[in-house]
Every structure is written in C-alpha cells, then in structure tokens.
Design goal:
Elements lengths: L2 H6 L25 E4 L1 E2 L8 E3 L13 E4 L7 H7 L3 H10 L1 E2 L3 E2 L2 H5 L8 H27 L23 H12 L6 H17 L10 H12 L4 H20 L28 H9 L9 H11 L3 H5 L6 E2 L4 E4 L2 E2 L7 E2 L8 E4 L2 H10 L17 H15 L6 H14 L4 H8 L4 H7 L1 H20 L3
Antiparallel strand pairs: 1-3, 1-4, 2-6, 5-6, 7-8, 8-11, 9-10
Helix pairs in contact: 2-5, 6-7, 10-14, 11-15, 16-17
Length: 466
Amino acid sequence: MPYTNVFDNPVTDPLRLEPIEIDSKQSEVRCGDALFTVSSETPQEVGMSSVWLSDQHNVYLNSFCFGYRQDGSFDNLYLAYMLRARVFRKQIEMLAQGISRFNISKRKVMELAVPVPGAAEQRAIGAFFSSVDELITLHQRKLNGAQRKPVRRKEGKKMAAQMLPTSLFCDYYRDWIATYKEGAIRKVTMDKYLLTASWLERIVPSLSVSELDRGTYQQLLNRYAEYHERQTTMDFHHQLKSAILDAVDEGLINRDPTRKAVIKGKPPRVKKPKYLNQFELHKLLDVLNLEGGISWDWLILLIAKTGLRFSEALAVTPDDFIFSRQVLSIDKTWDYKENGGFLPTKNRSSIRKVQIDWQLIIQFSELIKNMPPHEPIFVHGKVYNSTVNGVLGRRCREAGVPEITIHGLRHTHASLLLFAGVSIASVAKRLGHSSMTTTQKVYLHVIQELENQDIDLVMRSLSGLC
C-alpha cells in the first residue's frame, strides 16, 4: 500500500496497490486498521490517516507509514472520517516536528484523545460521511469527463480541474504549485518548486500531459541529469512525482510514468571540507581581527563559539545577551535573502537559550554597551552570505587551514562538542534541531568515528583482562 494511497484517502483505495517483495520488516494490513503517514513537507499535511476496509490478504504497509489496530471500539467508517476531522487534525499538527520536512511520533499519536460515541451513533455518522464522499466523487468524475475548453493562464494561476490531457505539462505543473503549494509551504521551499517549473519549461516546453509515459519521463530526467548531480536529480524527481500522481488521479494520465524511474546525474563535485578540527579552529580564531568595533570577524567568532545559524547570528541584538546568566537568547532570524527585517526562527525548537563562555561575555559586554538594545549588532544595510564567506575564506588562508563556509563553522562547533563527549541530545538542543534524528543524520560521520574509537577502547579493555 503506497504512501499516496494513505495520504489521499480517508478510506484506503483497494485498487491503488503496488507489487513489492515482502520482507520481515513489513506489516500486513487487516480490515479496520487505521494507517498514518509519518512525514510531510508541512505540519498541516503530516499524519494523514486512512482506514483499510477490505478483507484482501497479502497487503503490506509501506515503510513511510505506521498503523493502529483497533480492538472493535470503533465503527470503521466513523473512525475513517473522525481521524480526518479538523478537531483531530489540529492535535496531529501540534505533534509535527521538523525543519525542511516534518515528522510525527507514533507513540505521541497513540496518546491522543478521540471522541467515542455509542455504536449506533458511530454507524450513523460513518454512513452519512461515506454517502457525502461518494456523492463528491460522482460529481468529480462527471466534471473530469465533461468537455471543457482550456482556460488561458492568468497571472500564473489556474485550477487543475480546468486542465485537459492535451495541456502542456509545464503549465499543469505551475497550476499544481499554485493550487496545492502556494501559501502552504515556506518561501524557500516554494522557490525550489518554481525552479523545478522553470527547468520543465526549458527542457520539455512542448510536452503535453497525455504524452507522459515511462519513456518520456525517463528522457526528461536524463535531460535534467546532464546538468545536475544525482542527489539534485532525485529531488527534482520527487517534486515532479507528487504532481504527476495527482494527474493520474484526475484521469489526465492513464498510468504512473514515474514508476521504476532510474535516477542519474553528473559525478559529484569535490566538496570543501565541512568542518575544522580543534587545532585548526584555534589557528583560525588566532588570526581574527578583533580590534576596534563590530566587524565580520566578530560574527565569525560568535558562530564558532555558539553554533548559531547565519540568519540567527545576524538577528542578535544587545538585548539578547543575558550576561548575568551567561546565555544568549535566540528567538528570531534576519531576512538577509530578501528585504531585511526580523523573521521567526526556522522551527519551534530553534527558540532557545545558548550558554556562552566567560571570555565571550567579557568581549561582547564591552563591544555592545553603547549600541541600541533592540537593533541587530551586525546588520548595517544589505547583507550577503557571499560577503561573509569571502571574509572567512581569507582568514582560513591566513591561518593555513582548510577553507570552510560560515555554515561550516556551525558544523565545526557541533563536531567539536560531539568529539568532546557531549551527548547528541545536548548538541541537538544547543543547535536548535527539532529532533536528535536531525543531528544524527547531519553528523553521522562524527558519530561513526566516535563508535570506532569506542570499539578500540573496548578491545583494549578486554585485552587487559588476561
């Protein structure tokens, strides 16, 4: 049972199944099981539910969802529509955690309270919403089957229902973005979708929706892969796939052309090292020019010692320093990519208090004492990430250490903490990660190196027992 079947339908569609090779990790689905998606790009779309009503055997749940097997307390149809009700969805959205992608915990979902009316009332509610759902589906099929003239796109917006199989795929995709993504995702994510749309207009400007099959889709990916690395091509594929599956549901395409797509790409570029070791960081800090007033060297020092994100460091004001408690309060970011001004933090977990050392306290207490308390310390006009990276690059060359980026300073800070034995949970909290999973993924190389050191320690300890 694919992810999209669970995501799209309160009652799971028994016809939307895909063949797989069964392994021991997969769970067989039974009639009455409630299924939940684990992750999505927005909190509003995470934890979408679906109830399986078929007695069909040999159906297994995909690894991006989890299931709840009820004990008979619920009428199946009532459960299906109750879990999609706004009152329950609000509870689910409160559990969403993440940065660029949001996840929910199965344990937390299982702790949520749900209304349980009597059996007769449940059956009546379930039957009512089922009949409404069937009526909507019937009218939608009639609408999709009606002959309509395509409407010319006005200011980039058009409803997907106005599209025909003969419509250009690039037009359909821009329509899909406007209908389903606009206003639901952050601007930085929206920009990625719009970039994908511009690539479609560049490489397949005359491809119609009806011409999309496995062959033409693979050719599309291959064209894109000529200019991009494999991971970038994979991201491109995922952004297109969501729209294409909707086109399949709407009857504009007969079969899913993205199935078994082969992802290619250019060989990855030689990347700069992401972080410095402790010796290299000391050498870098030694060459910083900290004489006089505020400069980008002071920003480099602050990020190296706190692990702040670039946008968080730009937003720091004198009022954010709580010197009596040796902490720096982080509750906002600076919009350096657009027109400036304060913005909310990347996620709720990014609002935090970061402990700072006494040297930093002495340095900054003197530096900011005559500055406006609510104005950003480092911002004086338009700020460019490339400008600060250029300053950092020069300082790295002066120190004779590998050149890293400003974000690499954040990696350096976190890596040194992990090597020093600080727990992953504490590092995640200090960095403002939404969960330890994010920290583990980003710093997997450090964790693996620490595990190797642990193995060496265990072997030495065991050999000393003889």
